[in-house]
Write a structure and sequence with these properties.
Layout: H1 6-13, E1 29-32, E2 35-44, E3 50-57, E4 67-74, H2 80-92, E5 99-105, E6 108-115, E7 124-133, E8 139-148, H3 156-178
Antiparallel strand pairs: 1-2, 2-3, 3-4, 4-8, 5-6, 6-7, 7-8
Helix pairs in contact: 1-2
Length: about 190
């Protein structure tokens, strides 16, 4: 499995009582972060209480992407702080452990995650997440992911330079996610 699938684990890690909501229909494409993303993969649980929608740019496949937009949905009634605690706990348990920061701001939870290359995944991957807590409608998480080639220089100095460059790029990613135009179109007064 690709590392971005960790996002599914974040939804599964939440253990709150879920309020039922009407089914939510995702768009076939989303224009965000200067790119047009097209739906490339979706998986909806049989009970429709959890779903994941993954969007790629251009003609990239879900197996071979460089930029990815993921929207997760769970019929959960939770808040940004609880989401952050669950997300941090899931990331702490991940092996190899990624570099990450989790925080709450203005009613949303945020996570910035950087995965280093390993035997299964030869690229660096940076992710920025924003959670939307929609009351009886449920929990939505918007995730923006970008892959970076591993440095040609495999020394510790080369690794550190690559990580510093990705951290700098991640600062812009999370700022973009904080200001993202996309948000769930959900009636919270159901």
């Amino acid at each position: 499995m690709l590392m971005y699938r960790l996002a599914v684990m974040l939804c599964l890690a939440l253990t709150f009582n879920a309020a039922l909501a009407e089914d939510y229909v995702m768009p076939q494409q989303i224009s965000e972060f200067g790119h047009l993303y097209k739906l490339a993969y979706q998986k909806i649980s049989p009970d429709r209480r959890q779903a994941i929608y993954e969007y790629t740019t251009g003609s990239e496949s879900i197996e071979n992407w460089t930029r990815l937009l993921t929207v997760q949905y769970a019929k959960l009634n939770t808040d940004a702080m609880a989401w952050g605690v669950s997300t941090k706990k899931a990331l702490e348990a991940t092996s190899p452990k990624p570099h990450f920061q989790v925080y709450a701001k203005a009613g949303h939870g945020y996570a910035v995650i950087i995965f280093e290359p390993d035997a299964k995944n030869p690229a660096y991957e940076a992710n920025a997440h924003k959670s939307f807590h929609m009351g009886s409608c449920g929990l939505f998480t918007l995730q923006h992911a970008v892959k970076y080639d591993a440095s040609a220089e495999q020394s510790e100095d080369g690794r550190q330079r690559t990580l510093i460059a990705i951290v700098d790029a991640s600062r812009k990613m999370v700022a973009d996610v904080e200001q993202a135009a996309w948000q769930p179109d959900c009636d919270t007064n159901q």
